[in-house]
Design goal:
Elements lengths: L1 H25 L1 H5 L2 H5 L2 H29 L6 H10 L9 H20 L1
């Protein structure tokens, strides 16, 4: 029920906004020639806002590009392969026969302990 009311409110708001913008479009010449429009220099403020948005968009795109370049997953696969090959690794060799004997001995000890 709440979703239905919310959706109805959104639709009403959208229709009202469309109606207001349509009326403003029809009377745009009258609005631009009004004293209030000229007093507050709306055209200049709109152009300043557009310039600010363009500048901010350009800086944000530059920052995003630099972050992509710095990201560790953005490296070339060849560079990553070279780093892996150059890494020093300590490997411990496991003697499987010896490990198998130890496991069998431990299993026999447990079986003997349980049966006694």
């Amino acid at each position: 029920m709440a979703k239905h009311c919310f959706l109805g409110g959104v639709i009403k708001f959208t229709v009202a906004a469309a109606a207001v913008s349509g009326i403003c479009y029809l009377f745009r010449d009258d609005l631009k020639s009004s004293k209030t429009y000229q007093k507050y220099e709306v055209d200049e403020k709109i152009s300043k806002a557009k310039n600010v948005v363009k500048d901010k968009t350009a800086t944000i795109k530059d920052k995003a590009a630099s972050l992509k370049e710095k990201a560790p997953w953005a490296k070339n696969s060849d560079d990553a392969a070279d780093e892996i090959e150059d890494a020093v690794r300590d490997y411990v060799e496991i003697d499987t026969d010896e490990a198998e004997e130890k496991v069998e001995d431990a299993a026999e000890d447990i079986i003997n302990a349980v049966t006694e």
